[in-house]
Amino acid sequence: MKREIIITADGSTTIQIPEWNEQYHSKHGAIQEAYHVFIKHGLHHFCNQECHLERSRKVKESISILEIGFGTGLNAFITLLEAKKLKLNINYNGVEAYPVSEDEIKALNYTETLKVENDEILFQKIHETPWEERNQIKDGFILVKRKQLFSEIRDTETHNIIYFDAFGARVQPELWTETIFEIMYNALKPNGILVTYSAKGSVRRAMQAVGFKVERLPGPPGKREMLRACKEA
Q1: How far does the chain reach from its first CA to its final CA, in angstroms?
Q2: Residue 220 included in any domain
Q3: Is residue 6 a part of any domain in this protein?
């Protein structure tokens, strides 16, 4: 399908699929959405839970993140920036069945919009490192890019956080089913969390059906609510 670069409301770019009228990130602000959903309500929330941040600092315990929909690499990049600030060790697994092209990557403006041009080399490294291999992007940030369908994931109690950033249920409802969320539930460690921009009732019910405790949270710009799901110990 045809893909094109567009500018979102906060000045950051994303990729749009005109045939679906669907974007890789919110047209109301790609960077704003990523920080609100995945950093504020995902990484920061997990770190603020009892002992996690302190243990990470003292014993260099790694936080394992699984991203469902690696796409443009924006979520991985801003997670890397936050890890630098918080002195966290991150093991990041990005799953993507249909990687974006080199030309599309070059057209993205994330380092300029974030005013972190000095970290451009890290954004490039995220995309240039080989797939299916363990790559050290910088000290404390390990990346594995996995080219696979979400239904093929077989991780078992491996991850602390899941960034669920698949295309919306309107265009790919098969990615928001009990079958997929059971795979996500199995992939999380006890007390692990899953965050997503979606707040559809059918999505929430599918999560609850496989055992998640689900809460509605204020959404990013352009969305009233989002969801966070916890796998209780």
Answers
A1: 42
A2: yes
A3: no
Taking CA atoms, 140 is separated from 7, 125, 212, in Å, by 32, 15, 30
Give 72's Cβ-side CA count (13 Å radius): 29
pLDDT digits (tens, 9 = 90+) for 143-156: 999 999 999 999 99
Residue 9 lies in a domain: no
- What burial class does residue 233 get, using C-beta atoms within 10 Å of its C-beta: 0-12 exposed, 13-18 middle, 19+ buried? exposed
Note down the domain range covering 145. Answer: 29-230
Task: Please tell me the pTM assigned to this model.
Answer: 0.95
Report the CATH number at residue 41.
3.40.50.150
As a whole-number percent, the residues of the chain with pLDDT over 70 amount to: 95
In the chain, the amino acid numbered 23 is: Q
Residue located via tokens 């974007």? 23
Q: Give the burial string for 67-95 (b: 16+ CB within 10 Å, else e).
A: bbbbbbbbbbbbbbbbbbebebbbbbbbb
Q: How far apart are CA 191 and CA 199, in angstroms?
A: 21
Joined tokens for residue 230? 């916890």
Angle at 133 between CA 24 and CA 230, to 5 degrees: 55
Express each pLDDT in 168-213 by its tens digit. 999 999 999 999 999 999 999 999 999 999 999 999 999 999 999 9
